[in-house]
Amino acid sequence: MPSPVPAPGQVRCLRGGLDHPGVTVAARSTPDPAEERERRILDVLITLEPGEVTTYGDVAETAGYPRQARFVGRILATTDVEVPWWRVVNVAGRLVPGHEREQAELLTEEDVVIRGGRVRSAPYGRFSEV
């Protein structure tokens, strides 16, 4: 039976428990920084609750990437992950250009007040009156 601890230059195969001489692998692969940044931003977006409205910059800062608001916008525009995109607006409360009608309808269903293409108040988040 092979040793439970691989010898130097060997790696324990997870399937079948075979040792493979001459095969070397890094103990842990380093995560891609861009993928990590995107994952952390998506994690923040997924947690947004109904009636909560925030800004691109607030999402970036909460994820640990202050001053990365444009990156948040790019993720929202390109991701295949289902996130509540309509709950994110710019710092002035303006709705997403080209999607104003849909975004306003979705936010209004969550008791968010929209006037003049901007969020005026929301039950939770940056635009709450509390």
Structure notes:
The chain is of the alpha/beta class and 130 residues long. The chain has two domains: 30 residues, no CATH class; 92 residues, Arc Repressor Mutant, subunit A. 32% of the residues lie in helices and 12% in strands. Strands 2-1-5 form a three-stranded parallel β-sheet. A two-stranded antiparallel ribbon has the order 3-4.
Q: What's the SSE blueprint?
A:
Layout: H1 33-46, E1 52-55, H2 56-63, H3 69-78, E2 88-89, H4 100-109, E3 113-115, E4 118-121, E5 124-125
Parallel strand pairs: 1-2, 1-5
Antiparallel strand pairs: 3-4
Helix pairs in contact: 1-2, 2-3
Category by helix and strand content:
alpha/beta
- Averaging pLDDT over every residue, what do you get? 85
The gross shape turns out to be elongated
What fraction strand?
5-15%
Q: Any idea what the CATH superfamily of the largest domain is called?
A: Winged helix-like DNA-binding domain superfamily/Winged helix DNA-binding domain
Task: Tell me the distance between the termini.
Answer: 67 Å
Could you spell the SSE succession in H and E letters? HEHHEHEEE
For the largest beta-sheet, the strand count, sense and barrel status come to: 3 strands, parallel
Summed up, the helix count is: 4
Helical percent range? 25-40%
Q: Which regions are unreliable across 5 or more consecutive residues at pLDDT < 50? A: 10-20
Instruction: Return the CATH topology of the largest domain.
Output: Arc Repressor Mutant, subunit A
Which structural traits does this protein have?
alpha/beta, 4 helices, Arc Repressor Mutant, subunit A, 130 residues
